[in-house]
Task: structure prediction
Amino acid sequence: MTLKKIPYLIAIDGPAGSGKGTIAKLISKKLNLNYLDSGAIYRVIALGATINNISSGEVTKLISLVGSINMKFEGEDVLLDNKVITDKIRTSEISKFSSEIAVHSKLRDEILSLQRSFYHGNGLVAEGRDMTTVVFPNADLKVYLDASPYERAERRYKQLISKGNSVNIQDLTSEIEARDKRDKQRKASPLKIADDAKVLNTDDLTIGQTVDKILAFII
Ligand code: C5P
Result:
């Protein structure tokens, strides 16, 4: 498939478990674009804060932490100070903590340039909560991926179980609801549908169908 222009920028936002990660990764491979999992950045900071005993309200400490840690994304792996922490950032505790620190606008500003640095070469597929609204407001294509809370909880459940985590679907549903609420209601860059975004509900779509629908928006 050929892109209309190069570089090309696709921004995808949506709530937890909407499928953005899987979909964005597949599209980036198909189109030979870079991939940004912006949630992973918040998760690495959250893990770093936990290690350094910094609480979610200590914004000044969180900001200096961002300046002092070494965060790397190498293929599927995430590294913090040269240690592989790919699975450590996917726990329920880190999910909750990352959304608690994500409420700080000063912290969000601090990682803006890091996120934008992923846009180079042929372009980028970036996914998160404010890719379409704040980080890449001029994206060539904006997509808002959604799914029902039940479907999203079930997807996350399967994902976590397959990685060997022991989770309970009821707890997971409440966690996802609390996290979505915090992400949508915060003042700083809340999760919302951008005016010019294409909205896709993926409840009844397979991964392949969702990818195809997004690719069809490009042609
Ligand atoms: O996407 P993921 O679920 O890994 O993101 C973890 C948390 O990081 C989200 O719940 C949200 O609070 C925060 N986040 C954000 N803005 C982004 C990406 C993630 O606030 N662009």
Summary: The pocket of cytidine-5'-monophosphate is lined by residues 16, 38-39, 42-43, 98-99, 102, 128-131, 179, 183 (CB under 6 Å). Residues 136 and 186 are 19 Å apart (CA to CA).
